[in-house]
Structures are given as structure tokens and as C-alpha cells.
Design a protein that fits this description.
By secondary structure, the chain is of the alpha+beta class. The protein has one domain. Helices cover about 20% and strands about 30% of the residues. The protein is elongated. InterPro entries: DUF4926 (IPR032568).
Length: about 110
């Protein structure tokens, strides 16, 4: 798992209906707490804060690392999501991936 750090950009894995934020929304970590929780700010295109939420690391994945100023690869992001699933769910994802895999064809 990629350890979340201050100013990293995260992507929600869950909906936050109380804040009108769907899974997939991006926010920035603005505070790190000792108990594996993080204060995350969600803003609009003008930089205005839409929501400030305390989240568990289980509710998001890191998609951009502030210390390296780089995006995580799709493989790293998929790995982060898969690592949070049960073995049974991971097996289901593997079986799905096999069903869409077609050697020699892209897309």
C-alpha cells in the first residue's frame, strides 16, 4: 500500500453522500492524524473548498505523490484497490480480467 502523506492527491473509493462527493472524486490531504485518518480538502476548479472531511485510509487511494511530484501508474492504483479486497473478491477480479484479456489486441 502507498502510504498517504501530507499534500498527496487522493481518489475516493466510496461515495460520501453527506458531502455530495461520489467515488472517484479527488482531494488533497491537508492533515495527517496518528490513528490512520486524514483530513482531506475537496475543491472546485476555482479553488473554493467544497468539503473538508476526515477520512480513513480505507476510503481512498493515493493517485499523486507530493514528495515526488508524480502520478501513480495505473498498475499502482489498481494494486492499491486490489490489496483492500478480500481474497474471494480478488479472485473474482482476476477471473474478470481473464475474460476480457485478448492476446495481440489492444483496447
Amino acid at each position: 500500500m502507498i502510504e498517504p502523506e501530507l499534500f498527496d492527491i487522493i481518489e475516493l473509493l466510496v461515495d460520501l453522500p453527506n458531502y455530495h462527493l461520489p467515488a472517484g472524486s479527488h482531494g488533497a490531504i491537508v492533515e495527517c492524524f496518528a490513528a490512520g485518518e486524514y483530513e482531506v480538502e475537496f475543491a472546485n476548479e476555482d479553488g473554493e473548498t467544497l468539503a473538508l472531511c476526515t477520512l480513513s485510509s480505507e476510503e481512498f487511494i493515493v493517485v499523486w505523490k507530493a514528495n515526488t511530484k508524480s502520478c501513480l501508474s495505473l498498475s499502482e492504483r489498481l494494486g492499491a484497490v486490489l490489496s483492500r479486497l478480500s481474497e474471494e473478491r480478488q479472485q473474482e477480479v482476476l477471473e474478470f480480467a481473464r475474460s476480457v484479456y485478448s492476446p495481440g489486441k489492444s483496447g
